[in-house]
Structures are given as C-alpha cells and as structure tokens.
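In this supplementary section we document a worked example of the pipeline. Step one takes a protein sequence of length 273 as its only input; no multiple sequence alignment statistics are reported here. Step two produces a three-dimensional model, which step three serialises into structure tokens for compact storage. The input and output of this example are shown verbatim.
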Amino acid sequence: IPAELLESELFGHEKGAFTGAINARAGRFELAEGGTLFLDEIGDMPLHMQVKILRVLQERTFERVGGNRTFNTNVRIIAATHRNLEQMIEEGKFREDLYYRLNVFPIEMPSLRERAEDIPLLIQELISRLESEKRGSVRFNSAAVMSLCNHPWQGNVRELANLVERMAIMKPFGIVGLQDLPQKYRHGEVPEVESFEQPLEETRKPTVVAEGDIALLPESGIDLKEYIAGLEQSLIQQALDNTGGVVARAAEQLAIRRTTLVEKMRKYGLQRS
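The serialised model returned by step three reads:
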C-alpha cells in the first residue's frame, strides 16, 4: 500500500477528507473490531505511521482521516516481517517502543532450509492441490527429493510451490528425476535409491520396485505414509550409524535440528549405536 494511502486504509476517512474521497469509508481497524488484524511486513512501515500504530496499541483509540470523532477499538494485532527489527532499531528505521509493544508473544517461523524434513510432505501437499484444482500432476523420485532437501530455498515454500508447478508443466503426469530438475536444484552426490529401500525389503514385503533412480508405484498401490516413515527411519538410522551415535552430528547430516532428530528417534524407537 502506498505510504500516503496507508493511514486511510488502516483508519478510514471521512467524506471530503482528500481529493477523491466522495464517501466516508471504514478502515481496517473498524472492520476488524472484535477480531484480528494481520499487519504483514511491519518492518516496511514508514516512521510516521509507526507512531500512529503505537498510539492505537497503547490507547486503543483512533480517528478517521479528516474526522474528529474518536473510535474505540478492540482488535488483536498480529504483525509479521522478514526484516531484522532489532538492527533497524539501531539504525533508527524502526521505533523501539513499537517493537516491544508488538513483541509480546513472538512466533518464529523457521525458513524452509531449516526444516528440510518437511519437504517430502510439502511436495505431496502441493501436488494434491494441483490435482484438486485440475491443473495437472507430477511425481518426484527419491533422488530428486533428496536433492531438493539440500537446496537453500531462499524463496521458502513459495519457491518450492513454483518448482512443483513448473515440473508439472514440463513433465505432466510423469516422474521427475534428478536429471530433470533445473541445474540450481541439483545438489551433491545423491545416493542410489536401492541403498534407501533395501532395509525396508528386509523387514517386510517390498512395496516399491527400484529401477535406476526411479521409484515405481506397483499396480496394487502403496501406503505412502508408511513408505515415507520407513524411508525416514532408515535414513535416520544410517546417519546415527555413520556418526557413531552422536546425535548432533547425525542431525547435521540430515540437515535438521538436533531437537527434531531426538523427537523422531523417540517416535521410531531408535537408539544410538
């Protein structure tokens, strides 16, 4: 929203408050009365508007642009930003008092590269959405998924969604392998699929047949949730074995947090070597 229109957008305006204001208009605070107002990218808000937002949060009152009537407000505020607000405070670009007024209950959303273990499930969810919207479908084999788990994902989930949609256009209803991914998404030496699936075959009847680097879906189908869980359990055990049971090092190999690995070990009943 342009800075000159932001005040009117948030607080509303009276008829004739400025050129083009032919009618009075309620702002977002009025529309959200008794509910929640989400302020996205609060770090981009101009300083003069930060002062007005601070006043609303402290006094719970505001006026429309061009009006004298004071409105009381009862709105929950959720603010989000990708910027480092503490650094902006030091640079004089963000008000410290507003920062502490907003930062009552911080919720940190880790970037996608910090939760690579979610990527296989996110891919399935994104594909399901494509299918439900009748926009095609696609599948990714194990080698491609492992490569994507090693990508830094500067664009987070939106970048992953764009990639899935692009692959659905380039290989409609096909299987995407490592060689099919754009160059920047191919990372490191990807182990052969057989090394992941062999432990599954030792413990139960095989549900997936490996052919090259492609995991083929059998005619009878598979339990996808069970297969992914088995694959995840196998990889975690390999990481623990490779690192002599040192959880921190195993977490580094899997590109997940140590606490996440401990939770998964407890879930699958895995022990250190």
